[in-house]
Amino acid sequence: MSNPRDYFLTLCNLWCEQQLSVDQVMEFQTLLRSDKDLQQIFVEFIQLHGQLAWDAGVVVGSDLTGISDETTDSPANQVRIAPARPLHKSRYSVGFVAACAACLLLAGIATINWHGSDALQLAKAAKEPGDGQNLGSANTLPGVPQPSEPQRHVPGNSASNELKPLELSAIQSKFAPPDVAANDPDAERPSESVTTVAVDDASIIFEIDRLIAAAWSANNVVAADVADDYEWIRRCYLTLTGRIPTVSEASMFVTSASPRKHTELVDSLLEDRRFAENLSVTWTNLLIGRTNARNVDQDALYRFLQRQFLKNRPWMETVGELVAAQGRSDQNGATNFLLAHLNDQATPATAVTARLFLGQQIQCTQCHDHPFAVERSQDEFWSLNAFFKQAERRPLTMTTAGGESQNVWTLTDTGSPGMTFYETRRGQQRAVLPEFDGHAMSADDSRSRRAELVRLLAADSRQTVAQAMINRTWAQVFGYGFTNPIDDLGPHNPVSHPELLEFLTKSFVESDYDLRRLMRWLTLSQAFQLSSVQAEQSFAIDGPQEGGAPLFSRAYPRPMGPEQVYDSIRIAIRSAADQPIDSSIGTGHRREWVEQFVQSYGTDENDEQLAFEGNITQAMLMMNGEDLQAAIPLTAAEVIKSVYESPQDATKSLERIAMATLNREPSEQEENIFLGRYRTLSRSVSADQAIHTATEDMLWAYLNSSEFTSVH
Q1: For the chain, how many structural domains are there in total?
Q2: Are the C-beta atoms of 476 and 519 separated by less than 8 Å?
Q3: pLDDT tens profile 615-669
Q4: How far is CA 2 from each of CA 6, 7, 176, 401, 528, rounded to the nearest angstrom?
Q5: Using CA atoms, how far apart are residues 226 and 137, in angstroms rounded to an integer?
Q6: From the CB of residue 628, how many other CB atoms can be counted at a distance below 10 Å?
Q7: How far apart are CA 219 and CA 235, in angstroms?
């Protein structure tokens, strides 16, 4: 590593947050006992840490002065690292903190046999084959801090003179931890071919940042600057809740002085009901489509997904319930996924299951072997299809309490087992058994085949379900996945960041398929903090929109989806007018509006196309014109009523609608345009009418801008 000091400061930050893994504890111990300069840094680090609020400790260290970057060749005594404890400047003076730090260091030097050596031995034992232990369970080992909830400070914007956060982009692509074995013959060197899976959030985020930064270095690209608070909060809300923030939400975040406000906002939104609702809408659309061409119970499916996401149930559990569901469509919402795709010998169910849950496009192998992917054959398609052979969809007419007839569907496994037959392109008949990952069921096996498929998915040695979800979620957060398309993983489709995809897949499995933690890792990563504005030279290198592999060195602007546009228009208008904010999910108006952009082809795969380009002119034309035309002037009137008292306050109304629509302050050019329009109108109408018309015009202009309909 080119700069051991930077890495040591990173370990100090993790230590203060009580998030050091076992390996990192070993590295921390080795560095402290091998370099006197690092010991001095540690003392000053503790002193500085005590001068700040405890949650700001992660940003300490970048402005340490008078400390040499050179290392010493002489070995130092062992230093005992005691568990960190919060210090609050209102109770502890700087001198007191410095004295404590000095005592801590002296006590450590005097203590040769640190209990950290026990952690070293335990870490070694955990690596021995056959012990059944995973290195990731570091927080269960004695001598290692056990944070109740890992936190990580992410870069933010502040006008204060506080110390700047550590620059993870400075980490080189050939990053390697200090050579532990050079100082300790009993220590094992980390293998370069195996990526250790960490279970604590801070370590996982750190590894994401390291692997992304390595790709930047390898491709000579300079990452964009960190996004300002206005850009970041808008992106965060759109990503996690599916709509823009309100005026109060954006203003509260921007004016917050908390050094951990990014982390705090992400955590609060992940616990918010709106996150589960947004995820439920996304997956309802993926599972059965927006048009619901097969007329299943869309609302029941949404409610099932909402319950799963609200309770943060493991993704593997949700997949299992969708694949193996039985019962009535109105009583068990999970049944509606397969009920929508059991037509045509369940070939749609086979193709959609593979695409959504396995990240594999196998629909063309229904009729022939894949022309490009040699690993995908016609046998494979029908072997997967055989798991759905027993599933049957039956209509059922019910009488409601009010005496009305109600049509529902039932999903059962009543079909007989046996072989599944298909025809090759040469007209030959072939028979296959249900088989996945090399495990086949016999023809006379009476067990539920769909239940067996769920078991095989969970035990899959390739962790295909986890890998597919990682790739899809990464694309939802960053605009591009590690492959293009995101649901066609395989040797035939190169992965842009194979080591990162493998690491996240293993971490996701290790977390028990925790979707909230997955979203936390991605939204608190350095790549998510970056601006969409970048230097032209790097912009040309990192150009996935031109067909190149994405490097994620900036935020990629992309159009909102139709649901995002619909909700963001409602939020902008109601927020500007200071009206109550409610959810539009499930309303007939929203559903009808969205369906206008969707076309169902009626193919064997139940495909549909979304003909929505994110063009606000298209959105405005398709929206109910009377409602919108009435809302714009009413909103302008409410804005003026709340902020305008005299001509000197003219720009206050502009500030209000800019924050409501674009979640930022108006630019100087926008102010000049607005004031020019206001002065021109003032020559022919009253000042009150002039400010109203100018505000109304600018509100329309903001809503019609590409900036409004973009996630950036």
Answers
A1: 3
A2: no
A3: 555 555 545 566 777 888 999 999 998 887 776 678 899 999 999 999 999 999 9
A4: 9, 9, 9, 74, 26
A5: 33
A6: 15
A7: 26
Give the HSE-up count for residue 642: Cα atoms under 13 Å, Cβ half-sphere: 17
Same domain, 452 and 565: no
> Model-level pTM?
0.72
Residue 536 lies in a domain: no
DSSP structure class, residue 340: T
Angle of CA points 263, 268, 273, to nearest 5°: 150
Within a domain: 613: yes
- The residue assigned the tokens 């952690």 is 119
For residue 226, the 8-state DSSP code is: B
> At 598, which helix (H) or strand (E)?
strand 598-600
In a domain, 189, yes or no: no
Arithmetic mean of pLDDT over the chain: 76
Do the domain assignments include residue 468?
no
Q: 557: exposed, middle or buried (C-beta count within 10 Å: 0-12, 13-18, 19+)?
A: middle
Domain identity same for 410 and 299: yes
Q: Which residue has the tokens 């939104």?
A: 269
Same domain assignment for residues 412 and 290: yes
**409 and 279, same domain (yes or no):** yes
Q: CB count, 10 Å around CB of 430?
A: 13
Residues 6+ positions from 204 with CB-CB distance below 8 Å: 198, 504, 507, 521
Tokens of 243: 């709509």
Token pair 């369940």: residue:
346
Question: Domain boundary at 100, 132, 164, which?
Answer: 132
612 residue type, one letter: F
Amino acid at 226: V
User: Residue 152 has which token pair?
Assistant: 């990580």
User: Which of 636, 626, 579, 630 shows the shortest CA–CA distance to 571?
Assistant: 579
Q: Which domain holds residue 582?
A: 557-712
Last residue within a domain, chosen from 132, 160, 175: 132
Tokens of 340: 């929508």
Pick from 146, 166, 234: nearest CA to 206: 166
Output DSSP code: residue 493: B
Smallest CA-to-CA distance from 687 within 644, 629, 655, 643 is with: 644
Where do the DSSP E strands lie in 439-510?
439-440
pLDDT digits (tens, 9 = 90+) for 421-442: 877 777 778 888 999 999 999 9
- Angle formed at CA 390 by CA 385 and CA 395, multiple of 5 degrees: 110
Do 224 and 530 form a contact (C-beta atoms < 8 A)? yes
